[in-house]
Task: structure prediction
Amino acid sequence: MTVGKKAVPKELLNSLLADYRKLEDLIGENGRLKQLTKLLVDKALEAEMADHLGHGMNARLRYVTLNCKQPLLAVPNCKAG
Result:
């Protein structure tokens, strides 16, 4: 499924960059880009699973660490409960 390109609202950008002081705030280890990437990947995975399964994803999430100090993304746990 192809989705058309949507413009990012300026209000959203202003909100995301409100605390921006230096480049590290944006692309550093705990920068906004890393936070946004994780949130976007989580949301995309959730949408893909919901589409694949035909319903919302209510499973517990566990984190996968791919040779990193911090989790990169959340994936559904195989064991519900």
Remarks:
- DSSP finds three helices and two strands in the chain.
- The radius of gyration is 16 Å.
